[in-house]
Amino acid sequence: MRSLKLMLAALCAVLASAGSGAFAQGGWPAKPITMIVPYLAGGGADPAARLLAEGMSKRLGRQIVVDFKAGANGTIGTQMVANAAPDGYTILFTPPAPIVNSKFLIPNLPYDPDKDLVPIVEVTTSPMAIMANAEFGPKTLKELLAYAKANPDKVLAGTPGQGGSGHLICAMVEVREGVKFNMIPYRGTGGLLPDMLGGRLNISFDLPAAYVSYVNSGKVRIIAVMGDKRLPSFPDAPTSVESGYPQLQLSVWYALFAPKGTPPDILRKINAAANDALKEPEIKARIEQLGYQTGGGTPEQMAENIKKEMAIVGEIVRLGNVKME
Q1: 68, 188 in Cβ contact below 8 A?
Q2: Is the pTM of this model over 0.85?
Q3: Same-domain status, 41 and 79
């Protein structure tokens, strides 16, 4: 009897070990992952999202599918992630607008960024920029502001959407420099570009990443990068600081988020895959060629960045009386 019990115990141990191994092999990720971008394909988020998804897919051993779900200043796609199962198979790649800006601008936001989403990692940062159609007269930031002051509401200024960072930098310039633009919001950079290239817009307030080929071909000109350092991808584009306007600076991050309640071990795997991908020389170089600076770091660091962004955005909204129409 004693021998039988010992044999049964040994058999159970073997089965438990086999079961544990099978569980480990079938653990996360066991299927493709969806990375939702809450804006149009072809916009500022597009190239960086695809690069990151490609790099992370190699490290996780599963494909990350980039899915563009535009609408309502990014809140439609963001809500989809907020409502998704917290299992690591649906993640969000987004700029600040649906996470930070919308808290100040949308009274009945259909999700709570603090309660429904958790930050994973900062992916990129980039200063905003003022781009101009090649035929538009003013060539410098000083010339643009002088022209806008002399011609209120005459400068046709496109932004990728109401409540986004383009809208905020436009409001910042108006408030701090006493000018008034005729701001026209679009559903993402992809919707804005045809009018910009066709001359139906004079300028745009946007991230420069989506304009690289058009700047290189001479169809679009960068009037100023709204920061203190020139971008490697646009070495000839002056900054707002060197143009004499240090008060006109605004940078934007892209970051990954997951539904609140996603298991910590899965969040760690996503964070590690993203950090490793961003350190890959080819991906890092390609991201910087797009006009971004590569990010990285911990979820805690990203959470701290969001707090800082809240303070900046809150001030701009208040001073500029920025509202969604």
Answers
A1: no
A2: no
A3: yes
